[in-house]
Automatic annotation (TrEMBL):
<feature type="transmembrane region" description="Helical">
    <location>
        <begin position="214"/>
        <end position="236"/>
    </location>
</feature>
<feature type="transmembrane region" description="Helical">
    <location>
        <begin position="139"/>
        <end position="162"/>
    </location>
</feature>
<keyword id="KW-0472">Membrane</keyword>
<feature type="transmembrane region" description="Helical">
    <location>
        <begin position="251"/>
        <end position="269"/>
    </location>
</feature>
<dbReference type="InterPro" id="IPR036197">
    <property type="entry name" value="NarG-like_sf"/>
</dbReference>
<keyword id="KW-1133">Transmembrane helix</keyword>
<keyword id="KW-0812">Transmembrane</keyword>
<protein>
    <submittedName>
        <fullName>Citrate/tricarballylate utilization protein</fullName>
    </submittedName>
</protein>
<dbReference type="InterPro" id="IPR012830">
    <property type="entry name" value="Citrate_utilization_prot_B"/>
</dbReference>
<feature type="transmembrane region" description="Helical">
    <location>
        <begin position="101"/>
        <end position="119"/>
    </location>
</feature>
<feature type="transmembrane region" description="Helical">
    <location>
        <begin position="310"/>
        <end position="332"/>
    </location>
</feature>
<feature type="transmembrane region" description="Helical">
    <location>
        <begin position="281"/>
        <end position="304"/>
    </location>
</feature>
């Protein structure tokens, strides 16, 4: 754990705890008022509760040029970033992506797309739709490990985080409380219902919250689409390709649209936001994550639109390249923040129950 980052975040946390002007803001502030002294794990917990809405910064009377020079969003962002990199497994890959995410993501996707294009030279003798270019068994052999192994790496990382921040045995109500907080993203409106200050300084807006919800629900719809296709294939012997009014398409098309709109909006907001209020070193990594996630949704839609044309082989290779790159890099990209934030919300639900 970076001693300097923790020390600076602790200094600012103690000042905020003494002031308490922002007590009604997001869940970070009620959490820090429960105690007077903060262990390293407490600081990590507060950092992963923070949604970087930045409302506290624009409301604070102790920012520069005051001698306290508070920049609480940036202090927590640095600790949060450090926790993702430090607790990742294997660790070196995380820092590499966060330093050069756009380049690494694009190169990985392009390399995998080229591999898939070359594999089409060995396409099966039979099959419909996409399976005319890759057999179902080949798809499973490639993507099952690419999905399961990164999830195992994330699980190891979360176990370390859980131990560090003092999480105890989960109860059902903690799980429900964490998922509820994640689903409605209350903390992205500052906790007071007036909105977020991320992209427009002291002006409030809920747009960032809506874009995050578009990304989250778009991704979940795409995942549900793939899952429903798997169920139809194995349980009901209904094999792809599926019609537009089938469950995989009714879930996947809206999911791809939401994912594309959400990521484009977040990328645009990223260019408007003040970089001094976040972890500046990892701007490229954050943008790389957005590019990978958005390209996964967009190329999926483009592939569906190209159905029945000569573009299918090219679009299929490109889409699969982005999907494979996204999943393999998942434990080391900002995608992992969703797992950490959900864990932090569950731990916070635990701590709230203990304090009552």
């Amino acid at each position: 754990m970076s001693t300097d980052l923790i020390a600076e975040a602790r200094r600012q946390t103690e000042i905020c705890n003494a002031c308490r002007y922002c007590e009604g803001f997001c869940s970070v502030f009620p959490a820090l008022t429960r105690q007077k002294a903060f262990a390293d794990g407490d600081i990590s917990h507060l950092a992963n509760l923070c949604h970087n809405c930045r409302g506290c910064y624009y409301s604070c009377q102790y920012t520069e040029p005051h001698e306290f020079a508070l920049n609480f969003p940036a202090a927590l962002a640095e600790v949060r970033q450090d926790s993702w990199e430090r607790l990742a497994w294997p660790q070196p890959l995380a820092r590499r992506f966060h330093d050069s995410g756009v380049a690494l993501g694009v190169v990985a996707a392009a390399t995998f797309a080229l591999v898939f294009a070359l594999l089409q030279m060995m396409k099966p003798t039979s099959g419909e739709g996409f399976y005319a270019y890759f057999s179902h068994n080949a798809m499973v052999a490639l993507f099952a490990p690419a999905f399961l192994l990164p999830l195992a790496a994330v699980a190891i990382s979360l176990r370390r985080y859980w131990a560090e921040t003092g999480g105890t045995r989960l109860r059902w109500r903690n799980v429900v409380g964490g998922f509820r907080a994640a689903a409605n993203m209350k903390n992205l409106n500052g906790g007071q219902g007036q909105g977020c200050n991320f992209e427009d300084e002291d002006r409030y807006t809920d747009t960032r919250r809506w874009l995050h919800q578009a990304v989250m629900y778009g991704f979940l719809l795409c995942f549900a689409s793939t899952s429903s296709g798997t169920i139809l294939h194995y349980l009901f012997d209904m094999q792809a390709p599926y019609s537009f009014f089938s469950l995989p398409k009714l879930l996947g098309v809206p999911g791809g649209i939401l994912l594309t709109i959400g990521t484009v909006g977040l990328a645009w907001f990223k260019t408007k936001a003040d970089p001094k209020l976040g972890a500046q070193r990892v701007w490229g990594g954050e943008m790389g994550f957005i590019v990978l996630l958005g390209a996964t949704g967009f190329t999926g839609l483009a592939l569906y639109a190209a159905t029945g044309t000569a573009l299918v082989p090219v679009m299929l290779a490109v889409h699969l390249g982005f999907v494979l790159a996204f999943f393999l890099l998942l434990p080391y990209s900002k995608m992992v923040h969703g797992f950490y934030r959900l864990s932090a919300l569950m731990i916070e639900d635990q701590k709230q129950g203990i304090s009552k």
